[in-house]
Amino acid sequence: MSRYRGPCFKKIRRLGALPGLTNRSPDDLSQKKKSDKKKKKQYLIRLQEKQKLRFHYGLTERQLLKYVRIAAKAKGPTGRVLLQLLEMRLDNILFRLGMARTIPGARQLVNHRHILVNGRIVDIPSYRCKPRDTITAKDKQKSKALIQNSLDSLPQKKKKLNVPPHLTLKRSQSKGLVKKIIDSELVGLKINELQVVEYYSRQT
C-alpha cells in the first residue's frame, strides 16, 4: 500500500488530530464529527489507532509493519519501543524541532538534500537519529531560509516553540541537537500503542 497523498481533512475527521500530517485541527473543519454512542468493535478501535499512527508519521502499511516487527524483537515493551523508533526518524525530529511545519514538509527538506546530520548530507527521511546527533541546514542561503521560514511562520502565540526535552533547538543557527532517546510519554500524538501492537499481533 502506497503512502497516503489524499485529502488531509478526510483523515482527521475520522481519526482526530494528526499534527504530523497537517497543522489544522478538527475544530477548524466546517463539518464536526458526530458523536457515536454505539460501542465500537474492538477490531475497529485497533484499526483506528493503527491508522492514526500511520497517517501521522506518513508511513506506508509495509513500513509500519516493518517497524512493529523491529520493535517486537527489541528489549522492552513493544508499543513503547515502536513509538521511540518512529519519533527518532529524521523527518519527525525536524518536525518536532519546528524546522518543518509538518512531517511531509520535513520529508521534502530531507529528500531535496537541505539537511545535514553531523555535517553530512542525509537524504533519507527514515534515517534513525541517535543521541548526540547534530542536525543543521546545509550551508546555503536557500536551505537556511527554508528552515527559518518555518520557524518564523508559527502563529504569534506559539513563537516560543515547545521543543520536547530530548531535543535542543538553536533557532538563530538553524541547528538542532538530539540529547537522548525520547520517552514514550512525550510523543506528540495521543495514541494507544498497545492497540496497534494487538492489531499486528498475528503478523509478527
What does this structure look like?
Pfam families: Ribosomal_S4, S4. This protein has helices at 8-15, 42-57, 61-73, 78-87, 90-97, 103-111, 141-152, 193-199, and strands at residues 115-117, 120-121, 134-137, 167-170, 175-178. With 204 residues, the protein is of the alpha+beta class. The chain folds into two domains: 8-86 and 186-199, Ribosomal Protein S4 Delta 41, Chain A, domain 1; 91-180, RNA-binding S4 domain (Structural Genomics Hypothetical 15.5 Kd Protein In mrcA-pckA Intergenic Region, Chain A). The protein has a five-stranded antiparallel sheet with strand order 2-1-3-5-4.
CATH superfamily of the largest domain: Ribosomal protein S4/S9, N-terminal domain
Compute the CA-based radius of gyration.
Answer: 17 Å
Helical segment count: 8
Classify the fold: give the CATH topology of the largest domain. Ribosomal Protein S4 Delta 41, Chain A, domain 1
**Succession of helices and strands:** HHHHHHEEEHEEH
Helix content: 40-55%
Mean pLDDT, nearest integer? 84
Low-confidence stretches: none
First-residue to last-residue Cα separation: 18 Å
The structural class is alpha+beta
- Coarse morphology: globular
| Total discrete domains | 2
CATH architecture of the largest domain: Orthogonal Bundle
Strand order of the largest sheet: 2-1-3-5-4
Strand content: 5-15%
Biggest beta-sheet profile: 5 strands, antiparallel
- Tell me, what is the CATH class of the largest domain? Mainly Alpha
Number of strands: 5
Q: What assembly state would you assign to the polypeptide chains in this entry? A: single chain
